[in-house]
Amino acid sequence: MFAKLTITAAADKLAKNEISAYELTEAALKRIEETDEQVKAFITVTKEEALKTAAEIDKKRRQGEKLGVLAGIPVAYKDNMCTDGVLTTCASKMLHNFIPPYSATVVELLQQAGSVMLGKTNLDEFAIGSSTENSAFFTTHNPWDLQRVAGGSSGGSAAAVAAGQVLFALGTDTGGSIRQPSAFCGVVGLKPTYGLVSRYGVVAFSSSLDQVGPITKSVEDCALVMNVLAQHDPRDSTSVKLDTADYTASLTGEVKGLKIGVPKEYFGEGIDPRVKAAVHKALDVLISLGAEAGEISLPLTEYTIPVYYLIAPAELSSNLARFDGVRYGYRSEADDLEAMYIKTRSEGLGTEVKRRIMLGTYALSADRYDDFYLKALKARTLIRQDFDRAFAQYDLLLTPTTPNVSYIKGEVKDLLTEYMNDYCTAGASLAGLPAISVPCGYVDGLPVGMQLIGKPFAEATILRAAHAYEQNCGLERKLPTLNEMGGSPSEQV
Amino acid sequence: MSKYETIIGLEVHVELATETKIFCSCPTSFGSAPNTNVCPICLGFPGALPVLNKKAVEYAVMAGLALNCEIPAFSKFDRKNYFYPDLPKAYQISQYDQPVALNGYLEIDVDGKEKRIGITRIHLEEDAGKLIHAEYGGYSLADYNRGGVPLIEIVSEPEINSPEEAKAYLEKLRSIILYTGISDVKMEEGSLRCDANISIRPVGSKEFGTRVEIKNMNSFRAVQRALEYEVQRHQEVLASGGTLVQETRRWDENNGVTISMRSKEEADDYRYFPDPDLVPVVVPAQWVEEIRQKLPELPDARRKRYQQQYKLSAYDAEVITASKQMADFFEATLKEYDDPKAVANWLMGDIAKHLNTEGIEINETKLTPSHLAELLALLDKGTISGKIAKTVFEEMFASGKKPAQIVEEKGLVQISDEGAIAAVVDQVIAENPKAVEDYRSGQQKAMGFLVGQVMKLTRGKANPQLVNKLLREKL
C-alpha cells in the first residue's frame, strides 16, 4: 500500500516497471486529498506540475535513460525553501504572495535526481517555533493523534511523511526543527553537519545554525536522500568541499566495537521517564549488537538553551529585516517611509517572530552586545569543546530527541516550557554536529525518538548505527492511527 | 592667525573597478538602464547568499599596499544593520573591527611643506542602491544597479589641519588610486565619495573639540569649501560663547553652507555582528607579495625619479606625475624626442589647457606621443615657427593627423629664403611710408607693426628672425 511505501521499495517497483512515476504521483495526490484536511501538512499542493514531471520521468525511463534512485519519487519541501515559480510563504503573512524566480540548491539537486515535487509543507512562521502553531495559516496535526501537534518547525514535512502523503520530505533544522517533529511523528529525520548541505535559496532563520535535511520513513531512505543532498555548492560560502560519499554503503548493520557515549545531562529531571525508558531500551539493542556504551557528562548542557536563544534571535533579527515591504511580499500603505515599515512589519509578522526579533535586536544592541551576544558566542565555543571532549572518547552520543512525546495543541502556553522543546537538540546545532532522530518506541501510542549525535561529517557513522538499530529493534513500523480512524477522522480535529 | 587649530579626518569611499559585484556575478557597469544589473543576491531576496569576489579583495589589498598599510592575514565581514529602501537586505555587508588593511599613510605637499597623513584603516564593503525621489513628492524610485558594487572605505587619521591639506590629501589619494588602476575614482560618477569629520580646538590643547561630520560634498573643491565654511562656523560659535553640537551636517553646494541633518542622539545603533553567511577572509603572505609585484611605480617615487633622471623641477615633476596617463605619455614622448623640459612644457601648457577644458585624460585624446615628438622636432629644425607650431598643435589635437602632414597640407612650412622674404619686406616698406617715417624718427613700436605686416603677407610663415634682420638692414 502506498502509505507505507519507502523510497527503497518504490524505487525497486519503478525499476521493475511494476509501477510508473505517474501512478505513484497519482497515489500520493490521492492520499493527500484523503488525509490532508485532517493532517494539514501542506500549504501548497503542486498537482499539475507533479503529474507533468512524473510523466516526463516515465518517458525518460521508457527511452532507456539511466535514472537515479530518486527518479519518480514524490517529495514535499518545507515552505521556506525557494521553488522557482511556486509560492514560497514561510507560513508568514509577510510572504503570502511570494513566488521566487529561483530554486534552492537542494530543490535543484532533487529535481536533477528526478524527484517529483508534490508541494510545500507547513511550518512555524519562518521556521521559528516547535509545533507549527506559529504558522500564520494553520496548525499541522500529528497523524498519530490529530489533537496533538506534529512538532516543528518542520511539522508539515514530518506529518506528510508520517501520514504517507509523500515518500520523503525536506525540512530545515536550526535548533531541532527536523529532529523534534520527526520524533513526534515517528519518522527518521537527519540534521547534517553544518556546511554539508547547501543553504542557498533556503530562507534564513539563523544562518550559523540552519541546515537542510531529509525526513524519511527509514534510515536507508535517509541515506539515499543524503547521497543527493551532500554536495558542495559554490553559491553558499559555508558549504564545504568534500568528496561525495555513498551513505548507503555505510549501512552494513555492523556496530561491533562502536563506542556510544550517553550524556547524563540528557537524562535528567526534565525528561519524561517513559521517554528515558524507551531510549535506554534502544541503547540496549545497540549494546546487544556489540556496541560499547558509557555514561559521560556534557557539563555545559544547561547553557544550551540560553545560548541558543541569544544567537538564533540575534541572527534572525538581521535576517528578517529584509522583509520591509519595499520590494516583495506583504506591504501596508502609509503616509511616510517609517510608518510604512512599522505598519508592514507589525501586520506582516506574527507574535513569536516579533518577540524573537526584539530579543535578538536587544542582544545585538551596542550596550548589550558584550553581555549577551558576544558572551553567547564564547559560550558556544565552550559548548563545542564539551562535545569535542566527548568525541575524543566516543564515536557517537545517544540521547532522547525530545523531553516528551507530542502534546495537545494549545496546551503549552508558557514560553520557557516551549523553548525547552529544544533542550536535547540545540546542543548539536550550536556545535554544528550531525544528529539523527530515529523512532524508538511508543508512549501512550505516541512515537518516541532517539537521537544519535556524531562527529563533524560523520553522517555515515550515525546512519550506520541508526540503521543497525532500526533493523534489529523489533519495532514494527506502524502507520499512524490516522489510517485506522476509518470513516470520519474529522471529528477528532 | 587664528588661535584655534583645525582637526580634520576624512572618510573616502572608492568604488573598485571589478567586472562584477562584490557578492554576486552582476556586472558593475555604470549607466545601465535601472534595475538591469541585478539578481536575487544583490536584491536581497529570501534565501539568496553572498559569495565574496576575490578580485575585490585583491584590489583592496592593492590599495592597502599603495597606501603603505599593513595587510592582516585574516579579516572578516560584518553586518551593519539599518533600514533604508536603497539597502535591500536592511543590512550592509561591511568590515567592522577586522578590516583588510591597517596603519598606512600618504604624503602631501602644501606650500612646499611635506607632511605625512596617517591612514587608520581600509575596509571592504558593498555599495547601496540609488533612490530617485519624485520631484513633487509622493513616491521614490529605487535603482539597485549600484547595490553590491564593491567599495573600499579609506579612513584617515585626524591629522589633517586645514581645508587646503584636505584637498591635497584627496588629490594625492586620487592620484595613487589611479596609478594602481583599481578604480577610475570619478567623483562625478560617484566612484569616489568623501565625508569629513572636523573639529577645532585652542592651539596647544590636547583634547579634541566637538566633532561634526559633513556629507554630500561632490567635488574636491566642495570638500575644501565646506571645510572652510565649517572652520569659520565653529570659530564663530565658540567666539560668541556658544557650544557646538556633535552632529552630521550636509553641504549645500548652491548656497555655500552646511545644514544640520541629525544629532548624535538620533544616531543609529547599527548592531554590527559577524556575517554568518561569509567565512573569514584569509590573505596569505604569499598572495600579498604577488599583489605587491603587480603594483606600478607610484606617483611619489616617479616624481623623485623625474627630478633626478630628467632634471625636472620639483613643481614640474609633481604636475606631470599627478596623473599616471600624463606621466606615461611623457615618458613615451621622451623615447622619440630627448628634451624632457620641452616635452614637460608642452604637457603642462597647451595640452593641459585642452584636457582641463574638456575634462578628459590625455589617453582619451587623439594626441599620441609620436606626434608630439614629431612636432617638437619640426620646431627644432626650423621647419615651422613657434607660432605655427601652435596652429599645427590645434589641428593635430583635433584631428589626430601627423604634424608633418598638417604642415604639408596647409603649406605652413616656414619661409627661410632671404630673397623671398626681402621681396615682401620691400613691398611692406613701400606700402607703409607712415610707419617707416615713425621708425626712422625713433619710434621703436613701428618696427613691430612692420614685422606684423610682413608676417601677415606671408601668412605667418616667414622666419621671424630673418624678417627682423632684413627690416633693420633696409631701414
Question: Short summary of the structure?
Answer:
Chain A is α/β, with parallel strands linked by helices.
CATH class category of chain A: Alpha Beta
How many domains is the backbone of chain A divided into? 1
Strand % of chain A is: 5-15%
Radius of gyration of chain A: 21 Å
By CATH, the architecture of chain A is named Alpha-Beta Complex
| Whole-angstrom Rg of chain B | 29 Å
Map the helices and strands.
The complex is a heterodimer of chains A (493) and B (475).
Chain A: H1 7-15, H2 21-39, E1 42-45, H3 47-62, E2 74-78, H4 105-112, E3 116-121, E4 141-142, E5 145-149, H5 155-162, E6 168-173, H6 179-185, E7 188-191, E8 211-216, H7 219-229, E9 259-263, H8 273-288, E10 292-296, H9 304-319, H10 337-348, H11 351-364, H12 370-393, E11 396-400, H13 415-419, H14 426-430, E12 435-443, E13 446-454, H15 459-472
Parallel strand pairs in A: 2-3, 2-6, 9-10, 9-11
Antiparallel strand pairs in A: 1-3, 4-5, 6-8, 7-8, 7-12, 11-13, 12-13
Helix pairs in contact in A: 2-3, 5-6, 7-15, 9-11, 9-12
Chain B: E1 4-15, H1 54-66, E2 74-75, E3 78-81, E4 91-94, E5 101-110, E6 113-126, E7 130-133, E8 140-143, E9 150-156, H2 163-180, E10 192-202, E11 212-217, H3 220-239, E12 247-252, E13 257-263, E14 273-274, E15 281-282, H4 285-294, H5 299-309, H6 314-321, H7 324-334, H8 340-358, H9 369-381, H10 386-399, H11 403-410, H12 418-431, H13 433-440, H14 445-457, H15 464-474
Parallel strand pairs in B: 11-12
Antiparallel strand pairs in B: 1-9, 1-10, 2-15, 3-4, 3-14, 5-6, 6-9, 7-8, 10-11, 12-13
Helix pairs in contact in B: 1-4, 2-3, 5-6, 7-8, 7-9, 9-10, 12-14, 12-15, 13-14, 14-15
